[in-house]
Amino acid sequence: MFNNRTKIKALLSTEPTGQEVIVMGWVRTFRNNQFIALNDGSSINNLQIVVELGLLDEATLKRITTGAALKVTGTLVPSLGKGQKAEVKASAIEILGDSDSEKYPLQPKKHSLEFLREIAHLRFRTSTFSAVFRIRHSLAFAIHQFFNEKGFVYLHTPIITSSDAEGAGEMFQVSTLPLENLPRTENGNIDFSQDFFGKSTNLTVSGQLEGELAATALGDIYTFGPTFRAENSNTTRHLAEFWMIEPEMAFYDIQDNMDLAEAFIQYLIRYVMDHNAEDLAFLDNRLKEEEKALPQAQRSEQGLLEKLQFVLDNRFERITYTEAIEVLLASPAYKKKKFKYEVKWGIDLQSEHERYLVEKHYKRPVIVTNYPKDIKAFYMRQNDDGKTVAAMDILAPGIGEIVGGSQREERLDKLQTRMQEMNVPVKEMEWYLDTRRFGSVPHAGFGLGFERMVLFVTGMSNIRDVIPFARTPKNCEF
Amino acid sequence: MFNNRTKIKALLSTEPTGQEVIVMGWVRTFRNNQFIALNDGSSINNLQIVVELGLLDEATLKRITTGAALKVTGTLVPSLGKGQKAEVKASAIEILGDSDSEKYPLQPKKHSLEFLREIAHLRFRTSTFSAVFRIRHSLAFAIHQFFNEKGFVYLHTPIITSSDAEGAGEMFQVSTLPLENLPRTENGNIDFSQDFFGKSTNLTVSGQLEGELAATALGDIYTFGPTFRAENSNTTRHLAEFWMIEPEMAFYDIQDNMDLAEAFIQYLIRYVMDHNAEDLAFLDNRLKEEEKALPQAQRSEQGLLEKLQFVLDNRFERITYTEAIEVLLASPAYKKKKFKYEVKWGIDLQSEHERYLVEKHYKRPVIVTNYPKDIKAFYMRQNDDGKTVAAMDILAPGIGEIVGGSQREERLDKLQTRMQEMNVPVKEMEWYLDTRRFGSVPHAGFGLGFERMVLFVTGMSNIRDVIPFARTPKNCEF
To answer: Given an 8 Å threshold on Cβ–Cβ distance, is B122 in contact with A438?
Structure first.
């Protein structure tokens, strides 16, 4: 057995009593030929290794460079340095892997996020990104734990699909046909019957419809999987490949749906605050430092930790779309013609409108319900007013839409009529309609964009920095 | 709030004291106009609803058909029937959704698995499939819990990739180019610079290489995501789209790797036995019934529960590939020429060989190590004998290979040489080689095929029956 190490996170919370320990990790810095800051990825904090004079020969000392991998045997003793309870007094150091400090791209200094994006394969080794990815892990685990505790079934909906029912945007085609020489039918069309699945297929944009099938049998289900949009959006909030969580619940109406979504988001934030306090403190400080360079007006009113605590302590504001439009029309921003896009009943809320509602007016997350039916999907439940549907979007400060959901139309006739009105291919979706034919029930669900949630919790500002390897237009590296 | 129901699973473990309850679910059967078996997907067990004479009018009674959805208000009282502790004496029944019993595809009788595969959107409503998918959920949760407890970071590796480094098989192409009219370069090739990512891209076959990048920074990571093979394999063990778990650990050698994999599999089995006892008992019984139709020789020696307990109680056998070949050559099966494929050192073990080792010879899971280097991937660590690599495959009874893993080659020169020998494009993989250039460490990992694990634990025999919507050649429905 090689791996008889103790992780640094564990050592740093152990009472140091001179016990023998083995640690392994990578050198962050080496000062005065005496103090090694060692990191193994388990914690934002480094472990200080003290190398006494004469322990190592000159040649070995020279190999202790930034990025080098070490195996250290020694004793865990109280530290005299500030900010750390324990350090290791080394009795033996083995160099597992050298790192040529001339060539190592990560120097012990601050690198820009843009530069680190170029070397995404190494950025896991920085404090910022190790914190981000540990928090991403915690959020993912908290999601599973939240739903598991409530008796939800985790459902893997298909990634490759032959339906484009959602109409949620541009899709990626999936094929095994030889592109250089595509087979054709007699009348000159591409012969998809020769494709792997015998038909044209795409990458999924949502697992919701399949989720409804399972929910109307198992009760409560959720998906958590990758989702795709082939949109040419080069923004700080869009990815071509991202992860989404889509719970779907039988016997839920839109109120139940809102209650669940709010409890869910608060649970996730609380979990990370409980389990990643040191990572959050680091990122909180990082954000403060970043914002020092900005003019006062562009700085956040709240620090990261303050913002998260605020979301825990305050209920989300719940307003209807109609109320949202009224608030916007009555706003100083509208009167001073500060909105670029038109404001009137029937519009799709633009980012500037959402930000005004959340950041200026209500100053907290807002749930907007009952949108005009014409700007929402066919499956949303029609309200009695004939104009709106039981949709709900959650808008978060600094992020905008983080959750989109609705009560689903469970009435077969109304659903069929709406599908026809919106040119959804009814015939290809008989399987979906079967849930309304046989024991149809009120049900609801929502989707949470995982990376947007990670952005919100880490305080990072570009979505490419919260996913290990971003896929965006013209960018598919690693 | 609509959803003020109590789930049937909770009610069935509650002491019945006449308390008022609300339950919602779907009718499985309705006997004598008096006893409704109601199921809400939370449990394999139905709740008995007792309808007293005169509670409902004739028209309503007729609407209580198999598949109909009900909201039942009543009192939870001790049951006189056998096999159930509690039942609900209804005070009000509301029909949430009708089900025309003439048209409902699921009748209260046994359907074949083949038929249910055709109506995969409804099979969640059967006892067998609800049990399978609850167990699938539990396995997924147990996977996250196992790694979270050990301080692993859950990593989402990319689904769309531009590299084919693994060479693990046929890949699905991903593109947004207009297939009807593909853009061409001046010399007539397809102009992938106009594609979404500016190059040719595919669906991932493994997240391992990206996993290594994160492991050599964060220490221990695991992936759990969809993986794709465009292989034209129509078998009971292959899917074109399946889920895989790939842990990758820094500072691990192959022994550490085997220890982790064995502990992992045992943890998963124990978790399901602890949390899904009723579902397992149902499937155990189902398997016994199925096998009654088979000749004695084809029946399993152990029942499902027996088999799972056996795996918990016994260590996995650990043998080298060379020992495996010796066992096969000395076997009665070999001497009687019962193997279809040749047996000699250097072959890739065939399914018949694996089954002999596991089911006939060792009668338990077997870990085979140190395979010939020429039948394994370039990244596996080369042993000192110059002939073998530090690979490890775990073979399970009835399933065959369930885990494939190895210690990785951490020595830059040896890795580069092997890549050249195997025609792996070294230049495109400089990012991968960087992990060996800067602080390289011994590390290892493995992949577990999730659906094969679900097969093993549920005792189902076709992999299409343990994933919600199977993707196989010429099949991409729902």
So the answer is: yes
Given this model, what pLDDT does residue B403 score? Answer: 97
Residue A97's domain spans which residues? 8-108
Q: Does residue B352 have a pLDDT over 90? A: yes
ipTM for the whole complex: 0.97
- Asked if residue A447 and residue A335 are part of one domain, the reply reads yes
| Share of residues in chain A with pLDDT > 90 (%) | 91
Query: What pLDDT, on a 0 to 100 scale, did the predictor assign at position B167?
Result: 57
Identify whether residues B37 and B139 lie together within a single domain. no
User: Whose CA is closest to A237, among A138, A341, A351, A97?
Assistant: A351
| DSSP one-letter code for B112 | -
Residues of B (187-226) whose Cβ lies below 8 Å from A: 189-190, 196-199, 201, 203, 210, 213-214, 217-219, 225-226
Backbone dihedral angles phi then psi of residue A218, each to the nearest 5 degrees: -95, -10
CATH code assigned at B28: 2.40.50.140
* Residue finishing a domain among A83, A108, A133: A108
Between A41, A137, A199, which is nearest B154 by CB?
A137
Domain CATH code at residue B284: 3.30.930.10
Look at chain A and report how many structural domains it folds into: 2
- Same domain membership, residue A74 and residue A34: yes
How far is the C-alpha of B285 from the C-alpha of B282, rounded, in Å?
A: 5
SS3 B279: helix
Query: Between helices B277-292 and B254-275, what is the axis angle to 10°?
Result: 90
Question: Given strand A366-372, what is the order of strands in its sheet?
Answer: A153-154, A220-228, A241-250, A443-449, A400-407, A388-396, A366-372, A317-320
Put simply, whether the predicted model's pTM sits higher than 0.95 gets the answer: yes
**For helices B430-437 and B208-218, angle between their N-to-C axes, nearest 10 degrees:** 30
In terms of Cβ atoms closer than 10 Å to its own Cβ (0-12, 13-18, 19+), residue B14 is: middle
Position A114 in a domain = no
